[in-house]
Amino acid sequence: MAVNRVKSGISGLDELIQGGFPEGSSVLVTGSPGTGKTIFGLQFLVEGAKNNEPGIYLTFEETKKKVLDQGEQFGWDLGKLEKEGKLIINSVSDADIGEILKNLSDETKKIKAKRLVIDSLSTLLESARRYTSKLQKEVHKLGKGEHGICLPEPMEKVTREDVFYIIREINKLELTTLMISEAPKEGDYLSRDTISEFVCDGVIELKAIGGIGKRTLTISKLRSTQHNITSLDMGITDKGIAIEAT
Ligand SMILES: Nc1ncnc2c1ncn2[C@@H]1O[C@H](COP(=O)(O)OP(=O)(O)O)[C@@H](O)[C@H]1O
Ligand SMILES: [Mg+2]
To answer: Residue-wise over 8-22: b if at least 16 C-beta within 10 A, else e?
Structure first.
């Protein structure tokens, strides 16, 4: 069966991946800070809006205003896309993971979303962890004294099960999803949680090589797709991200 393709919106990329990302796939976009992950995600959603494929941008990193401002840098009127029902920008701080997933599902139905960007998977997990430990502190206060409620240990770190669960739940929405992930400074793993790269259908690595002022994009994995795994030269201009011909 032929795979339907979803255009990335990144100039020069789609022709290298047989027309785009496989429909419904989840792709991890990983890189250190400043490598262009957020721009990549927004550009993907703007492309969706152009193609009648509404999208949701879920951020744990930036306020809505910052997102709108960042879009403006590249000539994207994200506020207008929201008004037209082609985009939802959702900025979340500490929240329960169940609530986040429920909202995502509601928003997907509301605008008939086809695309989703999670910015980032690392901060989603961090936000969920903070929420849990805050909640536990509250319960602890209530529980002191005669009730003596027995509490579980605060969620200090995210388990493999947490990551599997969250990615699986998100995948159930059947949206073409970019999961942005902060690349660790060292080590062989691509993402901080060291699991998501195995669970996602694709992995794209962004790098900024200081000194020589070079940016690269590497498609390290993309299910159902013939692709090269060499690093591609990439540029960021006032039009967004583009793959540069070599
Ligand atoms: N208008 C622009 N023209 C060229 N490069 C830009 C522009 N705006 C931002 N950048 C580059 O993009 C980087 C920020 O990209 P961003 O997607 O926010 O990174 P990340 O999300 O990976 O931390 C900046 O550090 C800068 O190098
Ligand atoms: Mg970012």
So the answer is: bbbbbbbebbeebbb
